[in-house]
Amino acid sequence: MIGHKTLGTIVAVMLAAACGGAEPAPPAVPTGATTPAMPTTPTTPTTPETPATPATPATPAVKAATPEETTKALVEAWNAHDADKVAAAYAENGTLRIVGMPDFVGRAAIKAAAAESLKTFPDFKVALTRVTMKGNISAVEWVITGTQTGDSEMMKLKATGRKTGLHGVDIATYDDAGLVKEARRYFDVPTQMQQLDAKAKAGAFRPVETLPTAAPLMGTTKGTPEEQKNLDAVNAMYKAIDDHKVDATLATMTADATMDDWTQPATFKGQKGVKGFLETIFKAMPDLSQDKNLQMAAGDLVVTEGYLHGTMKGNMGPMKATNKAMGMHFVDVIQLKDGKMVKGWSYGNSMEMMPPPPAK
Question: Among 286, 349, 291, which residue's Cα sits nearest to residue 312?
Answer without folding.
Answer: 286
